[in-house]
Amino acid sequence: MTTEGGAAWTVRAVEGPVPDRNSALLAAPVTATVPGEVYSDLLAAGVIPDPFDGDNEGKLHWIGKTSWSYRTAFDWEPDEHAVQELVAEGLDTAARVVLNGTEIGQTCNQHRSYRFAVTELLVAGSNELVVEFASPVATANRLREESGMWPHTNLHPYNSIRKMASNFGWDWGIDVATAGIWRPLRIESWTGVRIDSVRPLAGLDRDRGVLDSRVSLAWSEEATDDAMITVEVGGTTTQMTVAAGTQEVGVTSTIDAVDRWWPRGHGEQPLYDVSISVAAGNQTDDWQTRVGFRTITMNVAPDKDGGPFVLSVNGKPIYIHGANWIPDDALFTRQNRETYERSIRDAIDANMNLLRVWGGGLYESEDFYDVCDELGVLVWQDFLFACAAYSEEEPLWSEVEAEAREAVTRLSSHTSLALWNGNNENIWGYVEWGWREPLAGRSWGEGYYLELLPRIVAELDPRTPYSAGSPFSYDRYIHPNDERNGTMHIWDVWNQVDYSTYRKYKPRFVSEFGFQGPPAWSTLTSVVHDEPLDPYGEQMLVHQKAHEGNLKLERGLGDHLPLWKTMDDWHWTTQLNQARAVAYGIEHFRSLFPLNTGAIVWQLNDNWPVVSWAAVDGLGVRKPLWHTLKRVYADRLLSVQPREDGPVVAAHNDSDVAWSTEVTVTRRSTAKGSEALASETFALEVGPRDAVLNSLPESVATPADPTAEYVEVKTADGSTAYWYFVEDTSLQVVADAYTAAVAPTTDGYDVTVTASALAKDLALFPDRLEASAKVDSCLVTLSAGDSHTFHVTNASAPTAPIGKPLLRSANDLIAS
């Protein structure tokens, strides 16, 4: 029996606050999908409305407070094998497993697999399997009562149970506490010996590839034959004989002249097939994967400026253009290879080279890591602890150890895996978030981050660096969020202060920072149906999870942009301000190179339609922020930055080719014609993986009227940057600064915009006409005489003139 083999499953409610309209679920089951979870099953059966829509979230909270029973019948016939085991790769979460009326086990950890002996319980013919799931909300509350309260964020005590933290809701996430058989489940029959697990640790010895295959074996009681282990990789075959009962063996294979694996932007991503088999008597078992040959190191050794954070691949430091990754769908079992690849390509198309799998989510499926291996995206993998204190007492300690050992073993084959990270913000939380008083001396997770997890990584995956947490300063006597050391999270911006504060920091590495903005208009209106639409509408507030989120959106405008007057302007202003805030930070960080070695923006993706920090919204639409990230994460970035002696042109060249070009800097009028008031040129020479600062010429940097002038910086090879002497709320611009013309194309249409004056941050929103429409560019600034063509796909050319709210600019908001 396998979940892939067509076994028919049902699910029904066992007990809990089931509404009267759904009371039939207590008696009559509905069809279930395995792997899957109960929200998706009920939705597919038409029993509940879409939990993402309107205010359905709160109406469906009863699902997480209810216990559920999954049931199937399957046929089985005895065969030549001596051992039968039920293998559950993932049960979410507190489950009781019953086969033919006999309980075979109980589980309470979503993040690990289970294997149950069932040889004596299977019968020839029909067998019945029942998996009963206790209410996840009630279970978390019960465990908190039994063990005591450990500080945590958000509503539910997610830190009491080994279940995905954000499944209980987050400041961007819907509260859909799920239950179900979320990964494959099957009967395995075997005799003699089988491969229990493999850790194929691939590395380099000069130009040779070295594969250290750590093979764990399981043996049946009657096994007496020695076993032959065979490892095939890169045209090399290595064999080893082991005695019956041997539990683990290491087989080293050496492959001459391998091609090295590199992250994207630094080289190719060659992968080598690995085949491992074991044979004992007439019994065989095999296992396959792919590996790439590379080395990864982390440098946090103190230097004259404090302590760096540098990831190097094959001895080469990598400047990180990254994003934080959350589970891509709140109903996470709906993800597959196609959805993972689409979202990871969102990262690649925005010039990213690393994704951080955040600690409030999951150890992702093989599909996620396979795509990262293939496309050259480094993976920073958090262990699953986030924004909370965690008990180190039993049974939690043993559960953490079991899940960590399994996760490290499973993921160690993946070439993209660059870092194991102990937790998200928990060390910082202990130091600064007021936890010590309620903890009253109790354990809080330090033993996991500084003892258990590094010991497991050193034992099972010694080739991969380990970090105790994020943020972390790599010294127990330095504040964990110190800008001068290690990794830093910058959250006073957004929560408390203006985004201009980014420039007050000189961080060595920023592993979290970000700013909120709404999803695409088509995404927002597909789930929010308030009449009239308003930021404080009843359904809108269901889709704004951040504490005082709307107030922070308003405060975040500062002097940068005027307060909106209409809902259309609210949407455009807050999307624009989100993009500007993040660009402001990244341009500053990159201007500090080599002091700064990278940034990981919060966040790439959403798991449902919501106002959030994401660059790509919950329906896959790339927000203006995404287009800004594509620009500021480009290999070559030009920006103008303030310094003590005046503005400078900062050029960061994160490529292997020298950047040699001519730069023209022009001070222009914002009025019609964008008259050139002063202009100078200079030669730009930036070596590979280097940065330079060039002073802005005084004739260009000194305006006659700061409110009516700006600086345009252009290179001969197409890079641009702009500098403004005042904020937009004081800038004089022309309302009718551009015209637009539409031309149909074979796959959509083009909109060509031509400027007659400064046209600042032009943006086209074709989804306002057709939700499926996609646009190739956004936030384009033009001087008089310049043109830009927006290419739209998956849509028909509009027949009406292009204008607001389809085509927007900052001019719309600030022109008097």
Query: Radius of gyration, Cα only, in angstroms?
Result: 29 Å
| % residues in beta strands | 25-35%
Percent in helix: 10-25%
Chain oligomer state:
single chain
Q: In whole angstroms, how far apart are the ends? A: 71 Å
- Count of DSSP-assigned helices: 17
Overall shape? globular
Which residues sit in consecutive blocks of at least 5 with pLDDT less than 50?
1-5
Structural class, please?
alpha+beta
* Main beta-sheet annotation: 6 strands, antiparallel
What's the total number of strands? 43
Q: Whole-number average pLDDT?
A: 96
The strands making up the biggest β-sheet line up spatially as: 2-1-3-9-6-7
How would you describe this structure to a colleague?
By secondary structure, the protein is an alpha+beta fold. The strands form 12 sheets. Strands 2-1-3-9-6-7 form a 6-stranded antiparallel sheet, with helices on one face. Helix 6 (396-411) links the parallel strand 24 and strand 25 (417-421). Mean pLDDT is 96; it is low at 1-5.
